[in-house]
Amino acid sequence: MPKEMKKDVVVGLDLGTTKVCTIIGEQDNEGQVHIIGVGTCPSTGLKKGSVVNIEQTIASIKKSVQDAERMAGVEVTAAFAGIAGGHIKGLNSRGVIAVARKDKEITEEDRERVLEAARAIAIPMDREIIHVVPQEYIVDDQDGIKNPVGMSGVRLEAEVHVVTGGVTSVQNIVRSVERAGVRVADIILQPLASAEAILSPDEKELGVVLIDIGGGTTDIAVFINGALWHTGIITLGGALVTSDVAVGLRTPNTEAEIIKTQYGCAYTAMVKEEEEITVPGVGGRSDRRMPRRVLSEIIEARMEEIFELVAAELKKNGFEDRIPAGAVITGGASLMEGTAELAEKILQLPVRIGSPKRVGGLTDVVSNPSYSTAVGLVLMGMQTYEPQPNKKTSVAFTAGEDMFNNVLDRMKKWFGDSI
């Protein structure tokens, strides 16, 4: 039987191309988040962040959730689901309003109105707004304001980053989760969640780019002055590297993944000439020995392409000289030896590999770049809470009513009034 919940508990559900990951976290009285349950399952129903087989996706979600429930001893009824994929687009927008009160004091209502004005942009019918992330507020001519509430002014402006997604892609994610028996508490952009788990406030303030190399996509998020200024998705990831290894070494994909994980190096200059690896044969053929540098050259070619596309994305949008804190790389593919060194060479920036921080509990399990998104989803979910300490429940989510109604309104836009 699931245990009675005595603390706030939130569930993050990372739907990836190669794996589905469920993480359950709880918050103690001091506000520290502790990971109490982790469940992972190979993903076969998603490709490049989008659902291609809904039944397989549902099965993966169920298995992942069940494993996390068993570890945590709670029942999962709702989760924050991550979303990525080539359909995701980000753009910057500005909203302007006149302050309503006669004494010209800016209220929370004014702040909400200016954000609503900023999100009033023309987007195609097949797209929907996922996030409106404030960057800064401008009161009259004073810019750089993080929170204008309580200040005096006549004119209030807001600079925001708007993230949109394809309606059908979002629908398929939501349907898969709902049909697995889990309510979607909200949809959160995966690089935004990863950033919450691994980036420090100083990095965000100074200027940093997050590069999350997943199985099917590489997600980019640029933070300047503590706010999100750019998001981008490259539809290349670790799964393509595995495919290259399988073709280049003439070995099955499952064996190629093992070889890549155990012996892979993204920077050939780091591999010694005399090193060799064993490659399993196909169809009963005998195993072969070959130089490790051959494997490294295959991997380096694809990883180099990914980082060159990241560099082109930064240059096209004018950010290459605005990120002095450099790049932070996360995601499963970042675990390969030589990834940081290759990225430094191509991006011409300081680079570090990022793992989840700011959490306790099962840290030995989740202190791995492949869990960055799922941990970040839990941390972002915690921020939406209105704690209900006197309510006895086995539900792994107790968010405030206003937040749930906002999500419900958004779901109605995606699905019509049938929900």
Given helix and strand content, the structural type is: alpha/beta
* Average pLDDT, all residues: 87
Q: How helical, in percent, are the residues?
A: 25-40%
- CATH class group of the largest domain: Alpha Beta
| Largest β-sheet summary | 6 strands, mixed
Q: How many helices in DSSP terms?
A: 12
Q: What is the third-level CATH name, the topology of the largest domain?
A: Nucleotidyltransferase, domain 5
- The count of β-strands is 19
- Radius of gyration using CA atoms only: 23 Å
Short description:
The chain is α/β, with parallel strands linked by helices and 419 residues long. The protein has twelve helices and 19 strands. The longest helix is centred in the last third of the chain and has 25 residues, at 292-316.
Structural commentary:
The protein has 419 residues and is of the alpha/beta class. It folds into three domains: 8-86 and 167-199 and 357-415, ATPase, nucleotide binding domain (Nucleotidyltransferase, domain 5); 89-166, Dna Ligase, domain 1, CATH 3.30.1490; 218-353, ATPase, nucleotide binding domain (Nucleotidyltransferase, domain 5, 2-Layer Sandwich). It is 35% helix and 29% strand. The protein is built from twelve helices and 19 strands. It has helices at 54-72, 108-118, 167-179, 190-198, 201-206, 238-249, 253-263, 292-316, 339-347, 363-366, 372-382, 401-415, and strands spanning 8-15, 19-27, 33-42, 46-47, 50-51, 78-83, 89-98, 127-139, 142-145, 155-166, 183-189, 208-213, 218-224, 227-234, 276-279, 288-291, 327-330, 351-353, 359-361. The radius of gyration is 23 Å and the shape is globular. The model is unreliable at 1-7 and 386-406 (pLDDT under 50).
